[in-house]
Amino acid sequence: MTKAEIVENIFEKVGFMKKDVGEVVDLVFETIKDALASGEQVKLSGFGTFTVKQKRPRRGRNPQTGGDITITARKVLSFKSSHIMRDNMNRK
Amino acid sequence: MTKSELIEKVSEKVKNFATKDVEIIVNSVFDSMSEGLAKGERIEVRGFGSFKVKERGARKGRNPKTGEAIDVLAKKVPFFKVGKELKEMMNK
Q1: Per-residue pLDDT at A92
Q2: Using the beta-carbon criterion (under 8 Å), do A28 and B34 form an inter-chain contact?
Q3: From the candidates B7, B25, B27, which should be mutated to test the interface with A, based on the most A CB atoms within 10 A?
Q4: Which among A35, A89, B35, B87 is least buried, having the fewest CB atoms inside 10 angstroms?
Q5: How far off is chain A from B75, nearest CA to CA, in Å?
């Protein structure tokens, strides 16, 4: 499923103009991205929670050459799915 | 940021929709994604990230309180991988 298909699904259900739905869907993801980029947590009830985690620098190894390298400090994104979503996925 | 705050922010940026309509669309976005995942579909939103379903096999577990052995059934879990653009935005 791509963003275009998400827009298509919504368009079929709600009957707004497809172009307008597309614009709102784009804004939804842009707004979430901006919040995460500023380090904010994003909680979408019924879906899941996105949390930005700070990683410290650590020593690593180049798996190809075996040489020591330092993995720089960085931010990573973790997603914890809502139990509602997990229950839906596992319903028989 | 919660879902209602997301709806507020998106509403401020669009002209053609009332907040109530943005709410319908935002809810539809995540419902549609949940439904796709429940069907085992992979979802890709360019610049944001992708979701896929991973299967976890059945395993023997233990009740951590009583130490009693229990059977953990096979289940499906959603998995999120952050997109390149968002990863870069977070680390700017």
Answers
A1: 64
A2: no
A3: B25
A4: B35
A5: 6
